[in-house]
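chain below, 230 aa
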Amino acid sequence: MREGVLGERSLVHAGAGVGCHLPKTRLSKTWFSMTWISKTRFPKTRFPKTRFPKTVLGFCILVLVALLAQGAPDAFAQGDAILASSDRVRVTVFSHPDLSGEFEVDAAGFISMPLIGKVAAANGGAERLEAAIEEKLLDGYLKNPRISVEVLSLRAIYVLGEVGVPGSYPYTVGLTALKAVALAGGFSYRAKKNGMRVTRASEPEKGEQRIAGSAVISPGDIVVVPERFF
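prediction:
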């Protein structure tokens, strides 16, 4: 107990001057350790300033812009497609299942529905067909009809020329010329890959037009891969 008291007193006198005697106690050792740490100057560690290269930042921005551009495909959705012969649609007349069903556009461009008969469907989209059905139903059949038209399938596309299996193939949203060739078994060894042509179903009067592999293909289009001569 006395040694502890002397240790505390010695610690107090040690702060007043140099050379005073401190008994060897645990408290005095702790004080010396803290004093040495507080008065010792440690070298400051300096880390180099790292600057993000402007070229790398610019590259990242370009990649981001390209990804955003790809996120908005230029191919139209099936609901926005212009209907033509062989396309299939589902017509729903709400609260009237007897008037609803799946219908195919005939060669003349009409669909045949119960009760109201033929309705023009070609050369227009789903919204136009909805309006045409509503107009007919309002003519003495229903007071406030609610109609929904869903495009189920669109007419096939044709891939001809130097491909694995020439023929007709079902249309899918986002189809490009290269994807169409892939459906047909890919290029043959005689194919002129950079000379693909298309006849647009919407512009048959223009005949064959040269296209790139990334060109969007529409329902009814005819893709032709020519033969190379060397």
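The CA atoms of residues 96 and 145 lie 9 Å apart. The beta strands are 88-93, 101-104, 110-113, 117-120, 147-153, 157-161, 167-169, 197-199, 208-210, 222-225.
thats it, cya
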